[in-house]
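Page 42, continued from yesterday. The earlier attempt failed because a stray header line got pasted into the input along with the sequence. Redoing it now with the clean sequence only.
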Amino acid sequence: MSSNSRWALTTHDALGGHDLTGRRAVVTGGAGGIGLETARALASAGAEVWVTARTRAKADAAMASIAAQVPTARLRAGELDVGSVASVRRFAGELVDVGASLDLLVNNAGVMCSPATRTPEGYEMQFGTNHLGHFLLTELLMPLLRAAPRARVINVSSAGHTMGDVDFDDPNYRQREYDPFEAYGQSKTANILHAVELQRRFGSEGIDAFAVHPGAIHTDLGRHISGAVRERMGQMIAAQSADQPISWKTIPQGAATSVWAAVDPDLEGRGGVYCEDLTVAEVVDEVPFAGGGVLARAVSPERATRLWTLSEQQLDL
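This time it went through. Structure tokens are written below.
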């Protein structure tokens, strides 16, 4: 199947009739957008899904929405703000107390191009939320992932990784001028490097890790894109539209690659890669705003190891 034909596939296509009965999943940022659709899709295939959101009310509402579409769904609501270390530790402790195992962890929650703000612990908001929060969550849930026969970690990244690289000397913008696009790119690059190092460290234990690009989708993720930020993004899109116009995906199309990376049996043992349009992306020198490959710097094993060390230092692990 060509890349062009894969572009339009939905979560229904990605599931491909797989039966996930007996498997447990956690989806962060499950209150709306592709997180909600990812949780719905996994639940429709029989998985027990923890649907998380920043407040319990939002998680409960998301769970009710899924149950209305999938009456047989096995769901649990969880309060989780990945932008807060305290919240991550609290939620992870709750899961570990439940015990058993965890087959799928979909690190989906995130913020995009937010103003210059910080998490409660002082991290730059996008780096702290998109990367450090999920890094810590994955680390704390590792005993449950190890307990599964085979497990997968899915990091939702973006073609936006091209907007900025990880600054190992100043990831939290304490010395350099803040740029919302660059900060977003740094966090999305970090999501990819995290998957690369996860695979290197734990692939031999049966834990595979993938980074995915959903595509261009209209969701609440873009709530900070207004005014000057919206104008700048429009200029970026216009600069590329002559060669590759952006084609917007529906939410089921946008969530499809996350679901595919979570369930496709052909991916077993093949983690540490970046996926888009239900396929493993090529490593390229330049990536358009809408996607079409992954930059070599974002899948560098050496830089992935360096980021892991930096993340542990940032979180005092």
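Notes: The chain is about 45% helix and 15% strand.
Reminder to self: strip header lines before submitting.
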